């Protein structure tokens, strides 16, 4: 719940920022000189990119959460079996061991979104966020394909 609240607050702050920047861009365009119109258009591009990025991230999070809920209902969510240091950090050897099992599981069933989901969690636990995101995107894609198989 805390993560959802934090995400919502950050998104709200970004939307307010995009609105403020957007109004400044409009003001620059309304000035009417070549220089201010050019800067105004450039300033308006930033909020558009930001809104697009925020939208794509929100879609990704919602889809990943749907997969997590479905996997939880099936009883297939990965159990937190990682050893931790006295300070609470994940033990690297433990993360590597779990990762090796998740990778082997995924290699054995490469078309199963569930294995890719669990691999994404293992990547995340190993602090490899880019690969965790790619694995989760692949899980989402496989799940979508399973839900809407294309007809030959």
Features:
5 helices; mainly alpha; 152 residues
Could you describe the 3D structure shown?
This protein is mainly alpha-helical. Helices cover 79% and strands 0% of the residues. The protein contains five helices and no strands. It has helices at 2-31, 34-74, 92-108, 113-125, 129-147. It is elongated and about 65 Å long. The termini are far apart. The model has no long low-confidence stretch (mean pLDDT 90).
Give a topology summary:
Blueprint: H1 2-31, H2 34-74, H3 92-108, H4 113-125, H5 129-147
Helix pairs in contact: 1-2, 2-5, 3-4, 4-5
Q: How does the helix and strand content classify structurally?
A: mainly alpha
- What is the general shape? elongated
Number of strands: 0
> How far is it from the N-terminal to the C-terminal residue, by CA?
43 Å
N-to-C series of helices and strands: HHHHH
- Low-confidence runs: none
What's the gyration radius in Å? 21 Å
Indicate the mean pLDDT.
90
Tell me briefly what this model is:
With 152 residues, the chain is an all-alpha fold.
